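Office hours follow-up: a student asked to see two folded examples consecutively, so here they are.
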Amino acid sequence: MKFINLSVQLALALSAASALIYEVVATKMLYYYFTESSYSIATVLGVFLFGLGVGSLVIYYLLNRIKDKKLLFGVLQILIALYAVLVLSNLLDILPKLSTFGTFLTSFAILLVPTLFLGAIFPLAGAMFKKEKRDVIGLVYSVDLFGAIIGSLVAGFLLIPQFGVEFATIFGAILNIISAFIILSKKIKILPVVFLCIFLVFSFSVPSLVTDSPQTLNNEPKEGYQFYANSPYGLVTVKDNCLSIEGRTQCCCDWTESTSERMMAAFALEPLEEHGNLQVLNIGLGCGLTLEKALEFNTTMEVVEINEQVVNANRVMTDVLENPRVNLIIDDGLHYLRTNNRDYDSILIDIENPTVAHSSNLYTVDAFNIISDSLADYGTFSLWSYYSNERYLDILYYSLKEIFPFVYSYQGVLLASKQKLDQLEYVSSTPYEINTIERNTLTDAYLGIS
């Protein structure tokens, strides 16, 4: 059975692989429009499953009326590729900044068309199998699943981290075109060939459509940027000595001495100067502003940064990592704290805001408990806490107070300690509410959502 209708099996596998590439791409892009990553996952899964179900149901009712099933299969593949290139690759430009429900409806409408086509592919593939003594549904289903598995793994672990979402989308479109070429009859195989040629000429005439890599085809830095690279955590760029991730400015090297990223180190380390050489952990590298300030004290620094491309970007802007007192670790901050059995005099966290999945857990009571266990009895914990509103700051305060006896606030920075410091303690004004990994209350507060 495994050798029957190999062309149909291959075409179906390629189609399924492209579908999961699109699904991973859509989830990745929609993430930045929702207040929580679970919304983007739920939206994409919902619309994909809905489209697959409706598409399959339509073909079920029309199957006996379709005279040339291979032709329809091939045409649908080309339409999916065309739709992906024209619409999906431009999703971030098409989607307006709406409310969560508005973004859901817009995303649903945009993604529904290709998923309807994808839903039609499975029953068409089953109908194209030659008549056999045994039912071929199990074989068709397994081929479809294996293709989907490969597509999801390639998209998540290779295409998006190394080349970006635009390249991943175009790669998926090429798989659709190859699938159409395999399945169409010899008389009209020229159709996907012509489409592929036009598509490639157009794509390579607009380099941004085929690469988001750190360098252009001429191996020169991308025009207008000091640094430009994709990563598993978003597009990292440096322009005018300002670091951005997915277009969101994180920091600039020319920010003044009074900026909170610098001051958080001073607030945390000044009370500890009498203890001599301080062992300090800095989670989140960014532009190195916090690290630079911490090095003005008598410190030995460990810097944990999850994103290697941020490290590469930092080296373009500053040489702070070359300091012999700095030890760089590439790791997730919370994971490093869990697995590293060391006590620090101070821990400084300067990371993206709590709406970002890979940094949100560091703003929780669960993380604060681990941080407390990693601090000396006299140690301090400084957390960059961009001022959003009173409720946001109060949630952070209440969460810190679950673990630390003393919590202070200075110009966008929260400072927690096991020992009383010569400072005014933070005063809350909103009802008690904490942030945990199990129940993330901080995201809505950060965005001002009641």
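And the second, which I mentioned at the end of office hours:
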Amino acid sequence: MWWRDAVLYQVYVRSFADANGDGHGDLPGVRSKLDYLEWLGIEALWLNPVHPSPDADWGYDVADFTGVHPDFGTIDDLDALVADAGARGIRILLDLVPNHTSDRHPWFADPTKRDWYVWADEPNNWESTFGGSAWTRHPEVGRYYLHNFLPEQPDLNWWNDGVRSAFEEILRFWFDRGIAGFRVDVAHALVKDRLLRDNPVAGRAADRREERVYNMNRPEVHDVYRRWRELAREYDPERVYLGETWVGDPHELVKYYGDDDELHLAMNFPFVQAELAADELRPILERWESVLPKTAWPVWCGSNHDLVRFPTRWCAGDEAKIRCALLILLTIRGTPILYYGDEVGMEQVEIPEDEQLDRAHSRDGCRTPMPWTREPDGEWWLRWGDTTRNVEDMRADPTSILHLCRDLIVLRRELRGGYAPLDAPRGVWAWRRGDSGVVAVNLSDRAAKVRGVDGTIRIDTARGREGEAVAGAVELEPWQGVVVLPQ
């Protein structure tokens, strides 16, 4: 399948590229950057929600699942993007939000569709992800509706056949327009306990998500994805579903693949949330490898629109560490996702409180404008961060983070086979990819040596040792990684 070899690139459309100068990124802006994305080696774009929305949660409160937000353009603009990207071998994935709608969606206002949402006469103890009770009383209805997120995001009732049929039609609508697949928002949360039972008492689990046993991660959700997989096969076995699956237990997470009949890719958030350290990342990956069926395929990322960017969170802005993180993401077995700006080491931006727009967790700092050049391109919807690391300057510098990222994307197509760990000193992570090569990365502040390595250094994160022959062992400086291929 194409997505096993591809690098996915997440585009936060509102911050990526502005074609009409209104301070908001748009679909023609994305289209104007396709030459760059093709040069980088990207084979699929995941677009954050582009649908009409009041933007209480910046697009994740959808008011029309088959339209396009006027800030981003028109449906013709989206069709043109799909066509132009396809001509370059780049597929388009949309963000699908099936757990909830906007409270301004026509469904929520329609009395005949009242049971398309989750209602209760009295609230239980479920809490919103954004804080407080997950229930709000509707004054006209006289009952409480469920919202696992903001009150403006009422949860849909996936026990209702009308909801299931409506979303199958939505999938068909976009598949008919050439969309290659969907990133499924909170894919673990669609179905709720039919009896609306109280969750276990809060505070007993280390991860609060583990306490949400009745309002998330219900076994009935897998019926939905099996049907969706059948629907995708009716079009093309190459269509793909990427699940946002906040599930800590790998034995539970792996269920979202089913018997190769549910999601194609399920995101591994324990990996994202770990520290950039060998003794944290390696056990997570190896445990995942041990439970993943042969028919399933892993997916990895370091940043996204909800999390502090990895160059800040993992690397504290240190360029050597950013290079090591990119090497890991682009060489481990699986499909990598780059969040726009990862390829230049774009950092989190500190947003003053009086400028914050996000009502949930103040995630504005990971959603700031893409630094295409050193000079900011006018006033945008969010403030600019540091533009020292920018595409224009880095593209002209073959030693830059950007060129390292591009070279790793080219190289990863040569790395075949499974993951096999190698013995390495403390603080170093090393592994083989079948017989195709060895990756060794020193995630420590002291020099180290990895033994049992022979070949030629193809990629060096510091770029100074490429082409060097290795016989028996490879030496690494602090925060240096290499890929060694057989001679």
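Two things to take away from it. The chain has a mean pLDDT of 96. The chain is about 25% helix and 15% strand.
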